[in-house]
Amino acid sequence: MTGIQKNKWALSLLFVLLLSCGSTNSIDRFYELHKNDNEVLAVRVPQSMLSLLSGISPELQNIIGNTRDIRFMRFSGLSTPKIETLSNQMNNITSSSFIEVYRKNQDEKRSVISIREKRDLVKEIMIFNHDDFNANLLYFNGEFDPARVRSLAENEQFNDMSETLFSQFSGPVLIE
User: Fold this and answer.
1) Among 10, 25, 39, residue whose Cα is nearest residue 135
2) Are the C-beta atoms of 120 and 146 separated by less than 8 Å?
3) In terms of DSSP H, where are the helices of the chain?
4) 66: which DSSP letter?
5) Element (H or E) spanning 171, and its range?
6) 3/120 Cα distance (integer angstroms)
7) Over the chain, what is the mean pLDDT?
8) Are 113 and 102 in contact (CB under 8 A)?
């Protein structure tokens, strides 16, 4: 093998390695990693149920109309190290290609809303909240109006939507 061939081979190997590492920091990976944890309510809403959810509130109606995927998770009875781990994992997911549009830090409570944009649309919305013992994740994938998303974030309406959705699914549900 010549030096150029070795360099091409090494570069190809590095590229494959980087691609495989990138997939570990995704909502899919996070959901799969934690959906079987103790004290976790994990719900992934199938397409057929999206229209049912849109009737819960006007805010949800506006968001769900263009949604392809909704997932939410509620983690209960957490220790401080577990909350820190979840928070660090969420930071890893959102740090590279998401834009943080809202953050509220109050004592031990955190509320962060991050979005991923493509051209003039918001494609993903991720809301992560936690306090001393509990954490919530709400994730939307679809096509959303950036002005509407920012308005919902600034008026803290995503927190209200999160609570509404979690209360709807706090009873017996089918978990994917």
Assistant:
1) 39
2) yes
3) 3-22, 27-34, 47-53, 58-64, 80-97, 146-154, 157-168
4) T
5) none
6) 45
7) 78
8) yes
Question: In whole angstroms, what is the distance from residue 46 CA to residue 58 CA?
Answer: 20
CA 45 to chain CA centroid, nearest Å? 13
Q: How far apart are CA 49 and CA 168, in angstroms?
A: 13
* Structure tokens belonging to residue 71: 């997932």
Q: What angle do CA 33, 25, 107 make, to 5 degrees?
A: 80
Give tens-digit pLDDT for 16-41.
444 444 444 689 999 999 999 999 99
- Pick from 44, 94, 108: nearest CA to 73: 44
Between the two ends of the chain, the Cα-to-Cα distance in Å is 50
| Residue at 143: amino acid letter | E
Q: Residue 37: exposed, middle, or buried by beta-carbon count in 10 A (0-12, 13-18, 19+)?
A: middle
Model-wide pTM > 0.90 = no
In eight-state DSSP terms, residue 12 is: H
